[in-house]
Amino acid sequence: MTDRDDQRPEDRTDRARREMLSRRTDEHAAPPASGGPTPASAETPDSAELEAREVQAEHDRAAQELVASGLFSGPDPTVIDDVRASSDPTVVVDPVARAQAETEVHRIYTEILTRAPEHDVQPSLDRVREVLDLLGEPQRAYPVIHIAGTNGKTSTARVVERLLRERGLRTGRFTSPHLSTVRERIALDGEPISPEAFVRTWEDVAPYVEMVDERSRAAGGPRLSFFEVFVVMGYAAFADAPVDVAVVETGMGGRWDATNVADGTVEILTSISRDHEQWLGDTLEAIAGEKVGILTPGSTVVSAEQHDEVTPVVRDAAHALGARLVVDGQDMEVVDRQLAVGGQMLVLRTPAATYTDVFLPLHGAHQARNALLAVAAVEAFFGGGSLSGEVVEHALASVDSPGRLELVRTSPTVLVDAAHNPAGVEVLREALEESFDLRRVVGVVGLMADKDAEGILSGLEPMLTEIVITRAATDRAHDVEDLAELARDIFDEDRVHVTERIDEAIDLAAARAEYGGEPGGAVLVTGSVVLVGEARLLLRRG
């Protein structure tokens, strides 16, 4: 048995945190020598300092709760001062240094893009595990809430994150793909990782990534993929922060997804439907079998209400692992849902409590169900008891989910939604009809080549007056002319317009939406996350 094998899990956790964080200690100046003059602010704290102390005290109380529940070994006291300094809101970032860091982020991103694409899933976790082992297993330095499913993962992750932060915890969130900046994929305390921290993280992990690349290629295998590198960076950045808990969304599938090198304390299964069939299988049972690969022994599994073919797959997997299963429609439910200005008012029943008069600033019944999953998961994370009504109300009222039926402009109304499969289009249609009084909707649509184009366009047809086919800025994009030909078969020729450029597509759609001067016209940009990200950037929401 090696020294490494002889260590207890908590020893490895502490070692991982120390190794990841010790590289930062020499970057901060030593405190001034004692005996000097005491600043006036030290004698009379101003309101900002008092507020900062209150925030820190709340975090420490929350961390103590995790220690008591046995989920987390507590923050490393050797880095608390470092963390406080790095999160000090009074620190002014040099704009020149920030611009230089952003340039370096772009260079690093471009370099990582030369690797195998993120949808190229290899049935192995060995390369990711090897890099993380060399880094000291940073993914074991904090508990993980792991999320898999076909639709709703990112929105659910954002609600989970808000609930945890409302309880005073420092959070990491790993999601994909990104809308505006690659830094969104790794979020700390609800915000994309800073350019400086992104660069530092890459510098930390790059030598080990290259080492494993060389070993793999020498054995006839591939380099780490684009997605695998970002998973390594995410887990390392979370240990380096350090966070109290990480909310991690799978990229695709579950069993062989690179994020699955971490064991979840709680797992969430959002709605499972058909997507990525060439990689995950061509039946719902096969796809579900891949998704449940994230489940771990003795964990709590919080599941959406699933298709009949999926339900037994989830139930049997949880039972085999001795995991506690909490299911929407059985153990919890959205009791009531009423439209409200800017969102909806909810009554949510979970295994632990019923939460009333909860405002959620997201549209659609599917978002209410996502919020329900999130609340139940956070209850489970804290041991299964109820959360305070105030925590739930404040957290959900402050949630946002960019690119999910998001209003980005008025006059004319422009909405964006990242629906990219038939199931996503169906819930988009329901939410659009329920939440917006629109008479004429013109779609701007661009798809990825590997998507069910016929199913997506058929789902969009009843809600769109006309459609503008365009191209997302990615090599994976569906050929515009081929997509337009399919659209003409579904929509009829006179309802279909084509332009390669998204700016021209939005302008054309806006003109068609306002055709005749009738009120109630709108533009809907949908079909892929990449296209929605471009539209948000053009319309200055990115």
TrEMBL record:
PANTHER family: DIHYDROFOLATE SYNTHETASE-RELATED, FOLYLPOLYGLUTAMATE SYNTHASE-RELATED
Biased composition (Basic and acidic residues): 1-29, 50-59
Organism: Georgenia satyanarayanai
Protein's name in the database: Dihydrofolate synthase/folylpolyglutamate synthase
GO cellular component: cytoplasm
Region (Disordered), start-end ranges: 1-59
Mur ligase C-terminal domain span: 403-528
Reactions catalysed according to its record: 7,8-dihydropteroate + L-glutamate + ATP = 7,8-dihydrofolate + ADP + phosphate + H(+); (6S)-5,6,7,8-tetrahydrofolyl-(gamma-L-Glu)(n) + L-glutamate + ATP = (6S)-5,6,7,8-tetrahydrofolyl-(gamma-L-Glu)(n+1) + ADP + phosphate + H(+)
